[in-house]
Amino acid sequence: MVFEVNDLKVQYGSRTAVEGIQLSLKEGECLGLLGANGAGKTSTVKALLGMLKPTSGQVTVWGRKAGDPKALMKLGFAPEDAVPPEYLTAEEYLGFVGAIRKKKRIERIAAANELLSWFDLNPKKKIRDYSKGMKRRLILAQAFLCEPPLLILDEPLNGLDPLVIMKLRDRLDAYRKKGGAILYSSHILAEVEKTCTSVAILSQGKLVYGASIEKLKGEYPSVEAAFAAKAGGQG
């Protein structure tokens, strides 16, 4: 089991953001985490990363408490609104990330070069001179760096053009088939249907539907239809 979320509850003061969430992910699976704005997706992701302490419940990643350094070393995270340090070049930034992940220099250079080429990014260019879409591709590249066995992707398609989205779908499929696990949070439901093996739909902080894509399609015409039925069509 890559991660398990058992009866998660998160409160901010008197407001309950998440309550009673149960989730799990195994190797080779891609779980689509869906919900309207404010449904509890961000709080759930933060709990998995150890960025916030659950009010109650338990979150484990690779059998360790969320936030454990050994668990964090085995995941790649692409936040929705991340902005890489703009005074660095792309290759300097990926070199820094690779060093944090304690990979050998020759390995991280090779991995960085492959990703920069794949995402069509100029390695010598300062990040401040990148477009919004290029910065987004760079954030995705750092998540993939050194092939962590777990990817957590928060709205990964923001700012990407259609051709890059199609390429990314293929890369994620290959990654998953090699045993990688993915948590994929997105509002683009058609792409979730093409990329994910299962979905979890949150509404008002609660899990209102969870199923494999195969099972979902036996109950609804599409992920979009399931989302409309279970989450009121918001988002």
What's the helix and strand layout?
Layout: E1 3-12, E2 15-25, E3 30-35, H1 41-49, E4 56-61, E5 64-65, H2 69-72, E6 75-78, H3 90-100, H4 105-118, H5 132-144, E7 150-154, H6 162-177, E8 181-185, H7 189-195, E9 198-203, E10 206-212, H8 213-219, H9 223-231
Helix pairs in contact: 3-4
Task: Describe the structure in your own words.
By secondary structure, the chain is α/β, with parallel strands linked by helices. It has one domain: Rossmann fold (3-Layer(aba) Sandwich), CATH 3.40.50. It has nine helices and ten strands. It has helices at 41-49, 69-72, 90-100, 105-118, 132-144, 162-177, 189-195, 213-219, 223-231; strands at 3-12, 15-25, 30-35, 56-61, 64-65, 75-78, 150-154, 181-185, 198-203, 206-212. The protein has a six-stranded mixed beta sheet with strand order 6-7-8-3-9-10, sandwiched between helices. Strands 2-1-4-5 form a four-stranded antiparallel beta sheet. The radius of gyration is 18 Å and the shape is globular. The model has no long low-confidence stretch (mean pLDDT 94).
